[in-house]
Amino acid sequence: MKLQEQMDAYNRSFKEKAPQEVLDTMQQAKDALKNSGILDRTVKVGDRAPDFSLKNTRGDTVGLQDLLGNRPLVLVFYRGKW
């Protein structure tokens, strides 16, 4: 199963189980982000990511260039208040 198919299945399952108030809150947050214009300033699919270094879960510094190679690389950016 392709990654997109897995993500779609997960989203369908989540929407079936989550309370409507949670879905409404999530949609309001998505709409607020979209209306803020932030999407105009984001890296798009297929764009070349700028080089950067961050600490991994073990506290080691890892650079993007260290991870690039002959394999797929997926970058995930989490936005949240925690």
List the helices and strands and how they pair.
Layout: H1 3-17, H2 20-36, E1 53-55, E2 61-63, H3 64-67
Antiparallel strand pairs: 1-2
Spatial order of strands in the largest sheet:
1-2
Class from secondary-structure proportions: mainly alpha
Low-pLDDT stretches are none
C-alpha termini separation? 33 Å
Arithmetic mean of pLDDT:
87
- Quaternary form: single chain
Rg calculated over all Cα atoms:
17 Å
The count of strands amounts to 2
> What's the number of structural domains?
1
SSE ordering: HHEEH
Shape: extended
* Sheet with the most strands, sense and barrel status: 2 strands, antiparallel
Number of helices: 3
Helix content: 40-55%
Task: Provide key terms for this protein.
two-stranded antiparallel ribbon; mainly alpha; 82 residues
Explain this structure.
With 82 residues, this protein is mainly alpha-helical. It has one domain (3-67). Helix content is 44%, strand content 7%. The chain contains 3 helices and 2 strands, in the order H-H-E-E-H. It has helices at residues 3-17, 20-36, 64-67; strands at 53-55, 61-63. It has a two-stranded antiparallel sheet with strand order 1-2. Strand 1 (53-55) and strand 2 (61-63) form a beta hairpin. The two termini are 33 Å apart. The relative contact order is 0.07. The model has no long low-confidence stretch (mean pLDDT 87).
